[in-house]
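Amidophosphoribosyltransferase
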Amino acid sequence: MCGILGIVGHNDVAAQLYDGLTVLQHRGQDAAGIATANGSKLRVHKGNGLVSDVFDENSMSLLEGRVGIAHCRYPTAGSEGSDEAQPFYVNSPFGIALAHNGNLINTDALRNEVFEQDRRNVNTESDSEVLLNVFAHELDTQKALNPEAAFRAIEGVHRRCVGGFAVVATVLGLGLVAFRDPNGIRPLVLGKRNSGGQDEYAVASESVALDLLGFERVRDVRPGEGIVVTPRGELFTRQCAEPREHTPCIFEYVYFARPDSMMDEVSVHKARMRMGQKLGEKILRLRPDHDIDTVIPIPDTSRDAALEIANVIGVKYREGFIKNRYVGRTFIMPGQGERAKSVRRKLNPIPLEFRNRVVLLVDDSIVRGTTSKQIVQMARDAGARKVYLASAAPAVRYPNVYGIDMPSAEELVAHGRTDEEVEKLLGVDWLIYQDLSDLEEAVSGPKQRINHFDSSCFNGEYVTGIEPGYFERIQQLRSDEAKKTRRA
Ligand SMILES: O=P(O)(O)OC[C@H]1O[C@H](OP(=O)(O)OP(=O)(O)O)[C@H](O)[C@@H]1O
Ligand SMILES: NC(=O)CC[C@H](N)C(=O)O
Ligand SMILES: [Mg+2]
């Protein structure tokens, strides 16, 4: 679930892109990159690692220009190699750099089309490079270079690309271009700032990047909408796809986004608190005279939900696991070996919060079960009398194909298992999952800002439809087993 950011300013934007990326780091820890446009030159610097690893004074000083884009990567296609770090660049037409959050599900067909019909070379296995080439080809077929031409090129992208995508690009001679898939699966928000009487614009995956940089959150980019900002700060917007049902990815609210972000007009923090309230009510419904002594979150993401569960069921909230702040998010690490090792390195129990107690551990979600299996054992080793586990999301039973790297159903601990079987496998005395209707209501909130979601990993319903054989293919390409073989 990569992070993307684009800025048009009145001075060089590289330093701000860097700062913005640091608050989007939770969306991708594998690679980072920045591209800036300066007159007739596009500068790109990218590589593997955290934002702070990839850039130094020297590389930053080369990134000149008042228009720029940035990306931090969590791979969902291709490899983890540095050649697939973003932004990607093509020199024709005009010179374009592009950064993408999401995942295309017709990449193979598009790759052939791009080569055979559009006569363009795609040099990596990345779906994002394919998307860039589709956009480049569509722009090349336009007669002029202006916002209208960019909108028509975006229409072409919508006609040809299927999947989840939020995109920022910089086109030499035009400025910043941004667009969002017709279902608005992946997030993208527009911000504005006034500097010395002139407007500056930014688009970002999450509003937290706008906050940091002093941009006011104007609105979310609409599903299917295209945006162009010229180097002079003129904003152009247009709907570039037939309106479809807006179905943002619900997993953004469950896990991916930072709680201090607003996404499609919903506060992620509040959504997580409501998830906790709903789950607390479910616990009371199922066991009105429960014997829980303490509610303990599995840091970080579950904290908001855990605190509300504790409030609803009338039990103390305690921080029982201390997180090593120097270990990143485990779920978005590329291999299972690394993920499993990192849980123990990342979380350590405070035994006195467990000894002789019945503890309710709370996580935002249970995906492969990597975290919960180890945490439950740690709680027992620390002396807990009974260990219960609550998940603020329902059981994850189906692959995600729109930008979250859960390609293989077999790797999901709940796939093909009943809740009781998962309970046993995780070694807990009681496992409670959120109901999907409660999760969706929790995110919609009382104002019912969003009516439908991409909840595919919970219900197996895919808003774009899925071609026969697709799941088998991605399983072969992207399962942990396949990745391991590739690396060997
Ligand atoms: O069942 P699993 O496959 O282990 O995946 C789910 C876990 O992974 C995530 O934590 P992560 O460590 O990535 O980040 P966090 O610190 O934001 O909670 C998520 O919050 C769950 O704890
Ligand atoms: N998580 C994402 O948004 C990934 C973007 C793109 N599919 C890649 O693998 O680089
Ligand atoms: Mg976690």
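thats it. The chain is about 35% helix and 25% strand. Residues 298, 301, 363, 371 surround magnesium ion (ligand 3) (CB under 6 Å). bye
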